Each structure stands twice: as structure tokens, then as C-alpha cells.
Amino acid sequence: MSLSRRRMLGLTALQAAAALGLTTVSTRGASAAERPYVPAVVIGSGYGAATTALRLGSAGVPTLMLEMGRLWDTAGADGKIFPDMIQPDHRSMWFRTRTEAPLASILWLDLVNRDIKPYAGVLDRMHFDEMDVYVGRGVGGGSLVNGGMAVTPERDYFEEILPRVDAEQMYRRYFPLANRMLGVNSVDRDWFEQCDSYGYARLSRAHADRAGFGTTFVPNVYDFDYLQREEAGEVPKSALGSEVIYGNNYGKRSLDKSYIPAAIGTGNVTLQTLTRVRSFRQEADGTYVLTTERIDELGEVRGVGEVACKHLFLGAGSLGSTELLLRARETGALPELSGELGEQWGPNGNVMLGRANHPWDTTGLVQSGMPALGIDNRADPVNPVFAEIAPVPAGIETWASLYLAITRTRERGRIEYDAATDSARLRWQESQGQPGIDQAKAVFDLINRANGTSYRHDLFGDTRAFENRFTYHPLGGNVLGRVTDDFGRVRGYSNLYVTDGSLIPGSTGVNPFVTITALAERNIERVLAEDF
Ligand code: FAE
Hints:
This protein is an alpha+beta fold. The protein has helices at residues 3-20, 47-58, 155-161, 167-182, 189-194, 199-210, 224-231, 259-265, 317-330, 434-451, 513-531, and strands at 24-25, 37-43, 63-66, 123-127, 132-136, 215-217, 269-272, 275-282, 288-295, 301-314, 350-356, 373-376, 386-390, 400-406, 414-418, 423-427, 454-455, 466-467, 470-471, 496-498. Helix 2 (47-58) packs parallel to helix 8 (259-265), helix 4 (167-182) packs across helix 11 and helix 6 packs across helix 10 (434-451). Residues 136-159 form the Glucose-methanol-choline oxidoreductase N-terminal domain. Keywords: Cholesterol metabolism, FAD, Flavoprotein, Isomerase, Lipid metabolism, Oxidoreductase, Signal, Steroid metabolism, Sterol metabolism.
């Protein structure tokens, strides 16, 4: 059966499950056993997990995917699945009483955040001592909330961060495959030059140009044809309707539109939502036994259960997978796990900043929530910054140009297990972010000087110009070739794998999901050939 036919079958199953309010989605019957056994379990449903589930299912391996968030497929009372950024409601955040948006203020006024009811919302901001980590919650993981920027890293930097991976094979086979599977597309250049949607990006490009910096178009998984039709008023607005970070109702090819329905459509993959994997252990015969907790959308625990499997794939993201492995090691369940577990964590050098534009330099009321252009200074060995030109989709003119700069530094943190709270703790000091700020500042000082502009000091809750107390791009903890072998097999145990952003040591130099997907494609191909 073709992949597109499988995807259609899977989409139908997802829609049927949503309509019935089911938390288990499958094209086969559900198991009623007390402690069900499945050949393979995949934890999570982000990029690594979804890729792995599809390939397992396609190879005929019965697979169970466990995702702690909900399936985002049912419209609320307002007829929409997701809320926008201007009026966020309970659907926006994972069990919070107030939203926690990255842009904390405008003119120091808390105009951005709203009180909400606690609910299994789509965006989580995980708090640690000196760093917060944004992640997506729900079927599709980060793909539900992210900006869709689909960037293949520069080959020389990829070789530097993952020297043991065959780059020739990655760039010939797995990066193109990931781009194709994810539905990556590019903005029409002629349209870009005259549209309203990217007026803000053209303005930033002109300002960068005056300082001698070049820009690069950034591919995206948002359907740019749909965006053009949004601007033409032909279809409901999403990227132009202030939708990003709390989900997109239209236009975006998130994983629940691509890999996941294709996986379910194989007939071998069952998806169980609102199910958090709490811990796992290994029995004498090698079987893994997972303890799971099922919640409802209001957070009530509906049951604790167990599921057993032979092959266990961790795709719960950098923090999620590392926490599960650390817990297993520190509680003695899997004592042979690597001593390097939790090491080489990094925020991908994320630094957010805003510039204050002259009154005549308006960014426009209409701003696509999906960025399409980046200031590209990656070739500079001293300040190798890639700064995506980000929207401020506030619906009002803010005279702010916003950027998420991805800088490259060697600063790394560590994820540890805190026995008292039975949870992961991120060891990262704010001062470790300074080299990244210095790089971003070197670039944007020149842009400000060339344009007679200055930084905005009103956007991050206090007076700072550079915000690096959060990251969108958590990476590392279970580094490839260290905690795992060169294909994601966890050292010390058989049939245990990591398949997500935790494999990458702290930095990709660009937005990471294409790299995570391509690596997952590469690793699962080898694992299927040799371990099944
Ligand atoms: P991830 O997508 O985080 O998926 C992990 C999944 O596992 C989640 O669905 C969790 O709910 C689930 N999970 C965790 N723990 C458990 C458990 N114990 N039991 C069951 N389920 C669990 O992992 N990247 C780009 O390349 N381009 C962008 O434009 C971009 N923009 C971003 C914007 C925002 C606001 C955010 C938050 C991220 C952005 N990213 C972007 C980062 C990107 O989404 C992220 O690197 C990937 O989603 C990470 O993929 P993983 O497979 O590692």
C-alpha cells in the first residue's frame, strides 16, 4: 500500500477517534489485557518518535505510541482547535493558571499573558533554576507549537557536532528524505517581495543589508500557497491570524498531518494519548515493563498501568527522555546506564532580542506567524549567528523588529536526577548564556549603528535587551556515540533506543527539527536491519 494511502487511512482513524473522544487510535482492535505486551513501544510523538513509529509500522512491527498530551483534532466552543496568541485560553498551556508567552511585555505592560484554567494545553514551559524550556504537548510534540522553520544545517557544522555520523549519507539520503516526508516548502520569491505578510521581514532585511549582513530564505512546513490565499482573503486565517506557539488551525503540516497518520495507516501502530510514561524497568528475560499514568484533560489521574515490550524507543524529547533514563539509572532499575547520561545539554544558543524601529519604519499590522527569512552570519568564525526574523503578531504596530538568534558556543549544561522530587533538574547557569549574547550583540550592534536604531528594553518583563532565560531548542542529554552507540542504541542494554533531540550535543547552529528527523530516519533504518 502506498504511503499516501496509508496516511489517508491513518487520518481517518485519527478523525474518528477525535470524534468519539477516544484516547486510543488504531486501525486494529485495542488489547484488553491486564498488562498488554507489544513488540515495540515508542514514548512520545514528536519528530524522533513519529519517524520511528512510521518505520516500525511499515516494517510490520506492532508498535504502541504513548503520548502524555492530547490529540488536537477537535474544535472547541469557538469552532477552532487551537486558540490564537492574542486571546489564549485553557487550550494554550499545559496545566497553568496564566499563560507564559516568550514575549513577556510590550512597553513594559503585561499585554500579552492571560489568566487561564488549568488544562492539558498544547504548550509547556518547563521551569528550571536558570533556564526555562518550551516544549509542545500533544500528538505531534513540538511540531504543534513551533514556527515550522525547516532548516538543514550546514554540512561542516553538522560534521563538527556529530563527527561519527556519515555526513555524505546524511546529505545524500536522510536530509532529503526528512524534508520530503515533513512537506517542507519555500515561499514564492516574487510574492514575498510584494506581500503584506512579510513586510516586517523585508524591513529587517533592508536594515541588515545597510550593515553589510546577508539574509537567507528559510524553508518551512507551513503551506506557503495557503498563506498566499490567507492574504488574498480566500481561506480562514492562521499564520495571518496571530496563530503560532499555541497551535495553528490551518496551513501547517505538523506531524499529526504527516508522519503520524502514515504510521497509524500501516495498521501496525496504535497511539495512546494522555498517557504519561512514569518509569520503566527490565525483567530477567530482557522484556521492558513501563509504568504509565493515564490522565484526563483536566489532569485527573484515571489509572496507573503497565505495558510490556521487547523493543523500547525513547522519543520524549531532550528533557523527557533524559529524565526517564536518569530515573531508571538512579533508582537502580537500569544501573548499567552510561555515566555520561544527562551531559552535553544545550539551548542551541537561543537568544531573543528586539530592535526599536524609527516611526516611519513600520512592520505592519499583518505579519505572518511563520518566519521565512534569516540574517545569515554563519560564515563568520567569531560571531557565527543565524538570526531568524521573527514576527510580532500582536495585531497592532509595535515598531519592534524581533529576532531569535541561534548562536554557536561551546557552553553546555547537564541534566541531573533529583531524588527528592523524583524529577529531572537542569544544571545551566545564566552566565553560560553570555557568549551567545555577545555573538548576537556583535551582529546587532552593527545593524543598529548602520540604521541609527537601538535595542528594545521593554519586551522581556524587565529592562534587558537580550533574553536567553528560555530556549525553544533543548538538545542533548543522551548524546549519540556516548550514551548510545552511533545509531541511538542505549549502551549497557539491548533493544533500548533513543530517537529524539537528546541525541544531539547541545547545538545544531540552525533550527533543529529537520536534523532530529533525518537522524531518526537514519538510525531506525539500521536498527530495523540489524535488531529485528
Ligand atoms: P518533541 O517534539 O519535544 O516531542 C516529545 C514528545 O514526548 C512530546 O509530545 C511530549 O509531550 C512527549 N512526552 C514527554 N515526556 C513523556 C512521557 N514521560 N510520557 C509520554 N510522553 C511524553 O521531541 N524547531 C525547528 O526546527 N524550527 C522551528 O521553527 C522551531 N520553532 C519552535 C518554536 C517553539 C515555540 C518551540 C517550543 C519549539 C520550536 N522548535 C523549532 C523546536 C522543535 O519543535 C523541537 O526541536 C522538536 O520538537 C524536538 O523534537 P523531539 O523529537 O526531540
